[in-house]
């Protein structure tokens, strides 16, 4: 990290933070799943519908990893038939600012680059 | 996107933004490269040093893609020997908030989960 000048420690700190965040949010799906869950609990099939292109195996795997990291929890819903909701945890909600900023940037990028709303 | 309730359009808008942002920042390296460049222009070898684990082929490819998307530009430096700096563009700097927030989250996550600073 020698060349992280001119503000070495701030740069190293930022790089370390990015590394740790991406270790958790790696891949193309986790941020999308978290983004969908910021709008309230969702069933598995809802998530599949909202997150374009994700297959059931991948969704299942990603949800498990997010659960392991304490960002998402399963909630059994006593309907008939009994169902499961995926809910963002309080800790998962600490990602909301990142998600909002990223989405805002993406929307602005699309308008700027492609002229589409 | 039928199940993006309760606030359908806001949810769709957020998902679209995330999708577009990740289309540009896909993979495990681009955000790291942009983060390093928020601390000033860097030579290729500097970037390789700062971004742990990236190989020269991958770094070269990723820089080209970032350049294509207008987030990074090359700047020839009239040293002896002549060198090239990679510089974040004004447009690239619009990502700074996202990068700061993500890094802040990663640092907080590490402290919370692993108890390490």
Describe it for me?
The structure is a homodimer of 117-residue chains. Chain A is 55% helix and 12% strand. With 117 residues, chain A is mainly α. A three-stranded antiparallel β-sheet of chain A has the order 1-3-2. At the A-B interface, helix 1, helix 2, strand 1, helix 3 and helix 5 of A face helix 1, helix 2, strand 1, helix 3 and helix 5 of B.
Strand order of the largest sheet of chain A: 1-3-2
Mean pLDDT of chain A: 90
Oligomer: homodimer
Strand content of chain A: 5-15%
Cα-to-Cα separation, first versus last residue of chain A:
41 Å
Poorly predicted runs of 5 or more residues of chain A: none
Specify the CATH homologous superfamily of chain A. Answer: Winged helix-like DNA-binding domain superfamily/Winged helix DNA-binding domain
- CATH 2nd-level architecture of chain A: Orthogonal Bundle
Structural class of chain A: mainly alpha
Give me the strand/helix succession of chain A: HHEHHEEH
Rg of chain A: 17 Å
Largest interface: A-B, 59 and 59 residues
Task: Please give the number of β-strands of chain A.
Answer: 3
Do you know the CATH topology of chain A? Arc Repressor Mutant, subunit A
Largest sheet of chain A: 3 strands, antiparallel
CATH top level of chain A is Mainly Alpha
Helix content of chain A: 40-55%
Molecular shape of chain A: globular
Total discrete domains of chain A: 1
Total helical elements of chain A = 5
Provide tags for this entry.
homodimer; 117 residues; mainly alpha; Arc Repressor Mutant, subunit A; 5 helices; 3 strands
């Amino acid at each position: 990290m020698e060349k992280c000048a001119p503000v070495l420690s701030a740069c190293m700190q930022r790089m370390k933070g990015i590394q740790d965040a991406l270790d958790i949010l790696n891949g193309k799906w986790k941020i999308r799943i978290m983004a969908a869950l910021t709008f309230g609990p969702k069933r598995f099939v809802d998530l599949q519908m909202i997150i374009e292109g994700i297959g059931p195996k991948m969704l299942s795997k990603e949800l498990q990893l997010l659960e392991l990291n304490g960002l998402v929890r399963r909630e059994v819903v006593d309907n008939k038939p009994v169902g499961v909701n995926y809910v963002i945890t309080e800790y998962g909600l600490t990602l909301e600012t990142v998600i909002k900023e990223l989405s805002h940037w993406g929307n602005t990028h699309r308008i700027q680059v492609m002229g589409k709303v």
